[in-house]
């Protein structure tokens, strides 16, 4: 039911929650700028007991993520991208035993990254959720892609083509928090999410170092921590992420050499730009040898301790001696 212009999202939810076999619900690009169905509007909520996919993307819904969603014990995919959601990332998301895809990018979410989210059962291990009737949807998903016909006859005419996906492959295990106002540290507990494929924390206010524990996410394919306030080095252990194909740490306060590996040096330099103190390939600025830095520090210390201060004392002593003579 996406790409329509219905109104009264709360009323629609109250009607559809009685569809006991409903497993996939998409209202993308609908109910524009209405309020998120709140807990008050869903009194005595008992529906959607078999719902696996809830898509309210690009609806620009306002208000916090409602607590009644915590009752959807079979929910696997929650897509709320590009709305006006406020509040923090709910801790109760970690209680959903089948949830493996969260997308709340481009919202107004604040607060810190909850450590509890690092214990999502389906991202830590499939075993617990396997006991909750974990089945995949059988029908495919069709997504349109923009293509261009390069020929004299069509004169670079653009057209769309629908590509068929299995919904599990189209929605890999992911946490998208891109473009919000989330602050604080990236928790070290994030290394527990060993089945995670995508971690997008870009365009937020994180102010910590990149946890070395991210190297435990051996299935990680995409890591975006760009446009934050991160500091310190890029952990060398990240070179062990063999499936990592997209990486972006641009526009932070990172420093030191970029870890050496065929993989990291293959990323575009734009993935590292905006960190003036980062060095080595693929960036053009080379790292200074450690010995040179040590020599410079020693020279500066000698200059401070061995040249400037003694001459000052000699001058003062001369003045005092002169007036003492007088």
Automatic annotation (TrEMBL):
Span of the signal peptide: 1-28
One GO cellular component term noted in the UniProt record for this chain: plasma membrane
Membrane-topology descriptor: Single-pass type I membrane protein
Protein localization: Cell membrane; Membrane
UniProt-listed InterPro entries: Leu-rich_rpt, LRR_dom_sf, RLP23-like
Annotated keywords: Cell membrane, Glycoprotein, Leucine-rich repeat, Membrane, Receptor, Repeat, Signal, Transmembrane, Transmembrane helix
Family (UniProt): Belongs to the RLP family.
The protein's name in its UniProt record: Disease resistance family protein / LRR family protein
Species this protein is from: Prunus dulcis (Almond)
């Amino acid at each position: 039911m996406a790409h329509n212009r219905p109104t009264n999202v709360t009323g629609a939810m109250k009607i559809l929650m009685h569809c006991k076999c409903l497993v996939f619900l998409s209202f993308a690009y609908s109910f524009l700028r209405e309020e998120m169905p709140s807990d008050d509007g869903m009194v005595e909520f008992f529906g959607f007991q078999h719902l696996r996919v809830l898509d309210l993307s690009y609806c620009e819904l306002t208000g916090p993520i409602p607590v009644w969603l915590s009752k959807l014990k079979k929910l696997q995919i929650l897509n709320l991208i590009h709305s006006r959601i406020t509040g923090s990332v709910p801790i109760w998301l970690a209680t959903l035993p089948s949830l493996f895809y969260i997308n709340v990018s481009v919202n107004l979410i604040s607060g810190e990254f909850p450590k509890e989210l690092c214990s999502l059962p389906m991202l830590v291990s499939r075993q617990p959720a396997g006991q909750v009737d974990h089945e995949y949807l059988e029908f495919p998903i069709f997504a349109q892609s923009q293509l261009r016909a390069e020929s004299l006859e069509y004169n670079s005419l653009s057209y769309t083509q629908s590509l068929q996906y299995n919904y599990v492959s189209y929605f890999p295990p992911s946490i998208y928090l891109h473009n919000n106002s989330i602050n604080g540290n990236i928790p070290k507990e994030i290394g527990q999410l060993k089945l995670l494929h995508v971690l997008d924390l870009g365009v937020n206010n994180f102010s910590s170092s990149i946890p070395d524990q991210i190297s435990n996410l051996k299935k990680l394919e995409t890591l975006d921590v760009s446009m934050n306030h991160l500091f310190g080095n890029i952990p060398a252990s990240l070179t062990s992420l063999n499936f990592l194909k997209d990486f972006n740490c641009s526009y932070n306060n990172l420093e030191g050499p970029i870890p050496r590996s065929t993989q990291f040096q293959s990323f575009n330099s734009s993935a590292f730009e905006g960190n003036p103190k980062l060095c080595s390939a693929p960036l053009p600025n080379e790292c200074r040898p450690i010995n040179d830095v040590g020599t410079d520090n020693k020279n500066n210390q000698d200059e401070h301790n061995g040249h400037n201060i003694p001459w000052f004392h000699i001058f003062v002593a001369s003045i005092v001696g002169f007036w003492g003579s007088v």
